[in-house]
Write a structure and sequence with these properties.
This protein is an all-alpha fold and 174 residues long. The protein folds into three domains: 3-73, no CATH class; 78-124; 126-174. It has six helices and no strands. The chain has helices at residues 3-14, 20-31, 43-55, 61-75, 81-117, 130-173. This is Pyruvate ferredoxin oxidoreductase.
Length: 174
Amino acid sequence: MDLDRIEQLLAKYWDCETTLEEEKELGQFFNSESVPAKWQSIAPLFRYYEDERKNGSLDGLFDEQVLAQIEAKQEEPAGGKGKIIRLFYDMAKVAAVALILVTAGYFVREEYLNKKDKVDPYIADTFEDPKEAFEETKKALMLISKNFNKGRKEVEKVGVFNEAQEKIKETEAL
């Protein structure tokens, strides 16, 4: 038998593109005694198919029985008890989700209303006189500015260190 043809048929077989005749041809080839060594690992697969076809427990009536059952299922009326029960379960699921959302909305609303009535002590006005509040704010901003300036000086020192480190790397590279 032509080994190139068998190789082409195997490629088609693995891509699930063979016809029944081509698969029979492969089966005949691999069930023969003259299978090349490179395909010895594939031969048991085709031998198994042949053995199952000959000795399998399924007879010729199996296909007819399955097709008859499929046709019988298709001929049953479309409306049935199963659809009503399924519809009930679907509606119950929707109702449960709606109940959860309504309950969650209620509790979120209650929490919002409770917090709305309470005054946060950090947000409440602490000064009656606007000038006094302005002076306190000015003091706080000056303190922040002073600390930022200290931080900037420290960062400048780090910048000088980085420049020195780069110069050292440049001299080492040369």
